[in-house]
Design goal:
- The complex is a heterodimer.
- Chain A is mainly alpha-helical.
- Chain A has a domain of 172 residues: MetI-like (MetI-like fold, Orthogonal Bundle), CATH 1.10.3720.
- Chain A has 14 helices and two strands; from the N terminus they run αααββααααααααααα.
- Chain A has a two-stranded antiparallel sheet.
- In chain A, strand 1 and strand 2 form a beta hairpin.
- Chain B has two domains: 161 residues, 3-Layer(aba) Sandwich (D-Maltodextrin-Binding Protein, domain 2), CATH 3.40.190.10; 154 residues, D-Maltodextrin-Binding Protein, domain 2 (3-Layer(aba) Sandwich).
- In chain B, strands 4, 5, 6, 7, 8, 9 and 10 form a seven-stranded mixed sheet that branches.
- Classes of the chains: A mainly alpha, B alpha/beta.
- Chains A and B meet through helix 3, strand 1, strand 2, helix 5 and helix 12 of A and helix 4, strand 6 and helix 16 of B.
């Protein structure tokens, strides 16, 4: 979507200049006219992304106030010191490597939760787009409705459902030994993440599946493909951009998520986000919090880069 | 009084979780950036007076140097002012605040922090410029050294001498001899809370701290999510009677003990374990501030009697004990009114209402008789060990300021616990 706008804009600009050069009719726009439209976006990016990120760097490579050991950001790059950043990195691979496990956990949980989101989300979106008929609007409404309640509140609700003696325990207890779901069970945290982010997977998938022309599917069937093959050769490739978008939308915030874990897990299920949250509030750990944030950013850049490359290719093919 | 307290959403004063919004790292003002010509952190010399007098300990009380003159007793009360109060979340009864507003014809602006580090960070950065602030005792010396709090004029706080235990005014507490900068707010001990319907009193007394390490309660154990309190109790349980120790081996052993709770006993680090989740039945035993277990009655589900709540605190040997304070920051706009505020909360009646009807955390008043607290139903009879007396402070173990390198040892241990060992 973003790349489509990006390609549309220079074309618009070029056309107006061509029109002008050719002396054809239509309004005349000065050279700066079209680029001006990027101003709000640029300002937004600078104020809400670049400046805060620079502050994070300044905290990570800065120092601490000696008395209270609160972080003291250093804004001049020539004074930056990378000692804390190095020691933070070492905690990932130099024994006792206390951050290694949380890192592995973060990847494992995000991978598992994204995969479940994709499988379940695809099924729901597919059904809604193809077969829901008059139930389409109610289903979509039900998907959006939870957004009216804050995520934190919903997780608190899960906390009471899952706690010993809660409803989940009651039902589970009929079939099996009671389980203490809240005592740091990876499965609870993964399902919590799935619960929190799955709507963000369903909505883009639904949008994409809904737009696939019926005639395309009919053509597939006409040419002798089985329903399974039609799905694999027609529907799936056509929905690939939405799958990628959905995966990016759910997995990026999951990498930094900490409150799901705070409320449904324990230290046994700590992820990188939890370590950052903790470090922010500990005296003298501000630089470490900044350093961990940079590490997380670098990790998140990888799927983001892949997504951008894929969507650009898709745009080029189209 | 029975049933649920009519308070909508009560959190422990030390609630950390889920309240991270509003971030602790402030984006500095442009002026601050421009002012930062020299390399930050190099101009200030840390540990000036603290280095001179040493860290405050009960056996090394310190008299803090005066960083200015207190306001004159003749200063008129700022009329129609807005008093900025910066306190722990839900650590003060709104009804009492309202009474203060009515009595003085002023408005109170109420701002909260969720943990001490956040409170200190915002005060240091100047983001919040309160008239009244509630620090823990280990921060007092540093607040004075950095000129962030002002000396009190005790003539304007007569209730300190008349209502409060003498040890807090004369000679004054170990962290502030002569009460030059602080008055006490609440006092508390740290022990173990348990469900009396699952553990009987005799058994609890026999087990003591080991209640929290008993495999019988696997999955039903809560421990505070606060590094000083968590590691502090593990130290004492392991026989290290110094909750401020700098001994690496002791700290490592305490860390391992906490990891044992998390990994082997499925225990949880929860700030609301005692006051909210134990009464609801989620936990059988929990690390507990005395004020939390006294306030836990408001959280009992309908039909559960107050007699299920139990509290163990060591007898015959020293246990963990502490108090919180009220101070007036240097930047206070209404210092005279702030003195009135301090005096108001040390008033025998208002201070008592704040404690008995809302807070659960006891003020150190001479007028409070431990027996009458039980007779009046403020503290349930079986929670008698949650009542704090002046004598307990003479032998009690007090968490106080750590030297930076010692603090780092504690924090490293804590990071390891938080990362899941």
């Amino acid at each position: 979507m973003a790349s489509a706008e990006a390609t549309a804009e220079p074309q618009g600009g070029k056309r107006s200049r061509e029109d002008q050069a050719a002396g054809r009719g239509g309004a005349w726009f000065p050279r700066w006219y079209w680029p001006t439209f990027t101003l709000p976006g640029t300002l937004w990016l600078v104020l809400l992304f670049i400046l805060p990120f620079y502050t994070v760097l300044s905290v990570a490579f800065g120092t601490v106030e000696p008395l209270f050991r609160t972080p003291l950001p250093v804004y001049q790059p020539w004074y930056w010191s990378f000692g804390t950043f190095d020691t933070t990195l070492e905690k990932f691979y130099v024994s006792p490597a206390i951050y290694q496990e949380p890192l592995i956990r973060t990847f494992a949980y995000v991978f598992a939760a994204s995969a479940i989101c994709l499988v379940v989300g695809y099924a729901v979106a597919y059904y809604t787009a193809r077969y829901a008929g008059r139930f389409r609007v109610p289903i979509l409404l039900m998907l959006v409705a939870p957004f009216f309640i804050s995520y934190l509140m919903r997780i608190y609700a899960w906390q009471s459902l899952l706690q010993p003696g809660g409803y989940v325990d009651d039902i589970w207890g009929i079939f099996a030994e009671p389980v203490n779901w809240l005592s740091g069970k990876p499965v609870t945290v993964i399902l919590g993440l799935v619960y929190g982010y799955i709507p963000f997977m369903i909505l883009p998938l639904y949008g994409s599946l809904d737009r696939i022309e019926q005639s395309m599917l009919e053509a597939g069937r006409d040419l002798g493909a089985s329903p399974f093959h039609t799905f694999r050769r027609v529907t799936l490739p056509l929905s690939k951009p939405a799958i990628l978008a959905g995966l990016v939308i759910v997995s990026l915030p999951m990498f930094g998520d900490y409150y799901t874990n705070d409320l449904l897990g324990s230290q046994n299920t700590s992820m990188l986000g939890n370590l950052i949250n903790l470090a922010v509030f500990q005296p003298g750990q501000g630089q470490e919090a900044g350093s961990l944030t940079i590490v997380l950013m670098l990790i998140v850049v990888i799927p983001m880069g892949y997504y951008l490359r894929e969507t650009r290719r898709a745009a080029e093919r189209a | 009084m029975a049933g649920r307290h009519p308070m909508e959403n009560r959190w422990s004063r030390r609630q950390f979780i889920g309240r991270a919004a509003g971030g602790a790292i402030a984006v500095p003002s442009l002026a601050a950036i421009l002012a930062a010509c020299a390399k930050p952190g190099t101009t200030e010399s840390g540990g000036g007076s603290a280095a001179a007098v040493g860290l405050a300990r009960p056996d090394n009380p310190v008299e803090l140097p005066l960083n200015g003159d207190p306001i004159a007793a003749s200063t008129p009360i700022e009329e129609g002012a807005t008093l900025q109060v910066y306190n722990w979340d839900a650590y003060m009864y709104k009804k009492v605040l309202k009474a203060f507003e009515e009595e003085y014809g002023v408005t109170i602006e109420w701002t909260t922090f969720n943990n001490m580090e956040e409170g200190i960070q915002k005060l240091v950065s100047g983001q919040i410029q309160p008239d009244v602030f509630f620090p823990t005792t280990d921060y007092i010396a540093r607040l004075v050294e950095s000129d962030l709090i002002q000396p009190l004029n005790l003539e304007l706080v007569p209730n300190l001498a008349s209502n409060v235990w003498q040890s807090f005014s004369d000679p004054g507490p170990f962290y502030d001899l002569g009460a030059r900068y602080t008055v006490p707010y609440t006092i508390y001990t740290t022990g173990v809370a348990y469900r009396r319907d699952r553990v009987d009193d005799a058994d609890a007394s026999a087990q003591g701290y080991d209640l929290l390490w008993n495999p019988d309660y696997t999955g039903e154990i809560a421990y505070y999510d606060s590094y000083r309190d968590a590691i502090g109790m593990a130290l004492v349980r392991n026989g290290v009677m110094d909750p401020n120790t700098g001994d690496p081996a002791s700290i490592t052993a305490a860390k391992d003990s906490i990891l044992e709770i998390i990994n082997d006993l499925d225990g949880q680090l929860r700030i609301n374990g005692t006051f909210a989740k134990l009464p609801e039945g989620e936990f059988t035993v929990s690390q507990s501030w005395s004020g939390d277990i006294v306030g836990a009655k408001w959280y009992l589900p309908k039909g559960t009697g107050e007699d299920v709540l139990g509290y163990w605190y060591p007898e015959g040997e020293p246990g963990l004990i502490g108090n919180d304070t009220i101070v007036i920051p240097t930047t206070a706009q209404s210092p005279r009114l702030a003195h009135e505020f301090l005096n108001f909360f040390l008033d025998e009646q208002w201070g008592y209402t704040n404690f008995a009807d809302w807070n659960g955390y006891q003020p150190p008043f001479t007028t409070i008789d431990p027996d009458s607290l039980i007779a009046d139903g403020v503290v349930a009879p079986q929670l008698n060990k949650a009542v704090v007396t002046e004598e307990m402070f003479t032998t009690g173990l007090v968490q106080s300021q750590l030297a930076p390198e010692v603090d780092q040892l504690w924090l490293d241990a804590w990071s390891e616990i938080q990362a899941g060992g």
